[in-house]
Every structure is written in C-alpha cells, then in structure tokens.
Amino acid sequence: MGHRVLMLGAGYAGLTAARRLSTLLRHNDVEIVLVNDRTDFVERIRLHQLAAGQDLPRHELADLLAGTGVRLHCARVESIDAEERTVVADGEAIGYDTLVYALGSAGAPLPGAAEHGWSAASPAGALRLRGRLGRAGQGERVLVVGGGLTGLEIAAEIAEARPELSVALATSGGLGDWLAPAARRHLRRGFDRLGIEVREGVRIERFGPGGAVADGALVPADVSIAATGFAPNPIAAGSTLRLDDSGQVVVDAAMRSVSHPDVYAVGDAAWAMGPGGRPLRMSCSSGMPTGWIAAGEIAARLTDRRPPRLRARYFHQTISLGRRDAVVQFVTADDRPKRGCLTGRAAVRYKETLCRTAVWSFAHDLPAKPARNGALHSAA
C-alpha cells in the first residue's frame, strides 16, 4: 500500500490542504483520507447569517472533492496516538504515515454560558440561537458579549433582521478600536443606524439567568450571546504533541509539528508564527494559507522536491453590518490596519466575493505543477 496521508477536519484549512495535496500528488501512489464528523462543508464565516434566520446553501463534501481521489470518512475523532501513528474515530483505529491535524476550534467558554448563554460558533449553536430568536417578542433584550469580528457581525445581523428587538453589544475595549479611523467611524455609524446600544469598557465575568454580570453588576438581557473568541479543539491536548499554552499544536514555518515530524497542523489548530514575528490569529484568513503551505511541504517531502516558498500573510479584515453594509479594513502583512478601507455596498460585494471564492476553490483545481513520476520518500 502507498503512503497514507490522514487529514482530520474539513474546515477551511483542512479542505484546502486536502484539495491542494490531491492536485500536487495526482500521479503518485499516495492515499489521502479526510476524516470529518459531517458530510457537508460548514461556511463558518456565515454562521451569523444562519443565526439571524437566513438559510445557507448546503455544500456536500463529496461534491467538492469529486474527481480528486480524496477518500472521505465521516466519523468523529476521539483520540490521537502520535507515537503509534494512529487515530481513533468512532471507535475505529486508523493508521497513518503523515497526519494533517485540522480540527479547528470552538467558541471560548465563559462561566455560565452553557446554562444561560447562546452562541453562533457552530452550526448546531447557530440553529439553537435562531430558534430562540424566532420565539423572541417585541422589545426583548439581546446582549452580544464580545467586540471582535464575530461579535460585531452577530449584533449587526440580528439588529437588521429583527428591528423590533433591543440589541446591545458589550466589549471590554472600544468599538472597533483596532481599526483605522475611517473604518472605525463607519462601523459606529452603522451601529447607530441599526439602533445597537454599545457598552464599551465592560468586561463580562459570567452569564446568569437574567443576563450577564460585569464588575458584580447585572447587565440585563433576555438572550445573552457569547462571542468571546475561540479555543482550539481539545483532542490534541490528549496526545503527546507539543502544544502552546492555549492548546494549539506548535509548528514550524512548514506547518510541521516541532515534536512529531510526521504531523502537520493547520488553521486554528496550529500555533504558527506569521509576518513580523506575530502568531497567526484564528481565522479563515490564516486557515486557508496554512492548508496550502502544509500541502506543498508534504508533497515536496514525499517526492524529494524543493518545497514551495510560501508564507502566510494578511490583506484585509472584513466586517458585515447586515446584508446591505460592511467594512473592509485593509491591513499590512502582519495584520496591522492601513489607512485605507472599503465601506458600504462596495464592501458588501467585496466580502461576498471572498466567501464565494473560498467555496469555489474547494471544487476546482488551481494552477499547480503536480509531482510526476517521482519515487515517494518518507515524510518523517
């Protein structure tokens, strides 16, 4: 049997890596197996739309991977044994020669969130929130906790879709305080137009039955939504892979584990250095480039070729303000805001193009020079 590359997770990073590797190794004796707990691809960057009541298109992984030779195995990963090179998924032990760990992240926990909070960090969570909002009556109070990109988009989407609700956003800093002045002004104007109350400098400690608690005082809400960032999937924590303090797999510039050279980690699962010596942030903007890099490095090692000179970098941060408005903040390679930004309808079109292009790329081969007729080598 040929070399087996086992890939865990079919999010933006994992699916990018699988698709790219299948192109690069098309004429070689390599088995690529993609393990995922769903048969469809989740557009995570659209889950705020799902939560607000919109229906999203369904993208079957079998259709996106048609003709690639990638074998899809639908199962939930339970554990990794990096010493024995095996993964247990739904009780079945699956061996590998090279592992690509792309299990991503989930919403970061906040005390009381499980009992009293809501989230749109997963499809199931977004659907539960959608159901609760569907039952909300005139004037009910919705509190979004978290002033990052996710929190801003959820608050705006709900406020636009349900103007009869009272929507507020609580953030420990200022509204969009990391953005350049022009983008920050447009963001604030958008929130004012949508009638969103902004509570700045408020650090929420926990959720309770009547809202959220900050500095011992209750911030009242009928629906409290956690948008306080993301935490990596805990599966890696049960392995011997070297992790950083947050639980991400520590990798080098090739997305290769620094402790186990037969393992690569990509996307939210990886602790990787980006431009300017700054760690890559958890995002689609990091996930797809790291998947591309890992695929190129694996193909090069297996065919004894020179690896491509690819590095992850940033170009923009995009923020939807409902369906008719948005902000695109252009950034430096190391994710610092530039003066320039795009707003309004042009920004809406810009972001929509990015979302659609990401899905399109999973179903189409991009230009590549496949590794042909080369003897395979160990990736270790």
Automatic annotation (TrEMBL):
Every FAD/NAD(P)-binding domain range: 4-276
Protein name: NADH dehydrogenase, FAD-containing subunit
Annotated keywords: FAD, Flavoprotein, Oxidoreductase
Family matches, as InterPro entries: FAD/NAD-bd_sf, FAD/NAD-binding_dom, NADH-Q_oxidoreductase
Domain of life: Bacteria
Coiled coil regions, renumbered to chain: none
Gene3D superfamilies cross-referenced by the UniProt entry: 3.50.50.100
GO MF, any single term: NAD(P)H dehydrogenase (quinone) activity
Pfam families with a match to the protein in the record: Pyr_redox_2 (PF07992)
Example of a GO biological process term: aerobic electron transport chain
Family stated for the protein in its record: Belongs to the NADH dehydrogenase family.
Cofactor field: FAD
